[in-house]
């Protein structure tokens, strides 16, 4: 189904590969997830500034069935981990994928999800953090140091999203890392242009509590051991 270019209202400039830390996702919605993955997983591949570009282009699981083993591993629905759950992917396609489809490399469900998985593997955030010696810890990290370390590896400035401290907590908790890409050829670029101010609320987690991390300390929580 072709992308519908109506009146330019769905124009966008860059893509954002959003990865989230499952332990914080569970914390964010106060959901006692059972054994969330202990590696960074995909939240989505989001065009900036636009969503739900074609409401008649419905998600069809059949189109990505050969991607399912990778999808279940690297793009799981952390909050609803039962094996047949595709609601999360449906949401991401209908909200973001139908807009990303302006670009030929992303103009079908198979291409959109396949390209997202390929970018996730290529950027390999979990391995990069391990190589930098940045592991989940009961000790705090500093936002500036963390960003600088990632910027050295990727050559572009990422955006970090945190849960603000809850009552009785001392510091913010790292939840998401956004790496931005050029629209036409999906190459890394800075998340903000010089002088550009981030759009209010842009990139907020699951619509719940994540905000751009404030400078200063943050907590990168180790997975809790759950009882079966």
Write a short abstract of this structure:
This protein has 228 residues and is of the alpha+beta class. It has one domain: Ribonuclease Rh, Chain A, CATH 3.90.730.
Reconstruct the topology from this structure.
Blueprint: E1 14-20, H1 22-28, E2 41-47, H2 68-74, H3 87-100, H4 109-123, H5 125-131, E3 140-142, H6 143-154, E4 159-163, E5 172-182, E6 188-189, E7 211-212, E8 217-219
Parallel strand pairs: 5-8
Antiparallel strand pairs: 1-2, 1-5, 3-8, 4-5, 4-7, 5-6
Textual characterization of the structure:
There is one protein chain. Strands 1, 2, 3, 4, 5, 6, 7 and 8 form an eight-stranded mixed β-sheet that branches. The chain has one domain (about 15-220): Ribonuclease Rh, Chain A (Alpha-Beta Complex), CATH 3.90.730. The chain has six helices and eight strands, in the order E-H-E-H-H-H-H-E-H-E-E-E-E-E. With about 230 residues, it is an alpha+beta fold. Helices cover about 25% and strands about 20% of the residues. It has helices at about 20-30, 70-75, 85-100, 110-125, 125-130, 145-155; strands at about 15-20, 40-45, 140, 160-165, 170-180, 190, 210, 215-220.
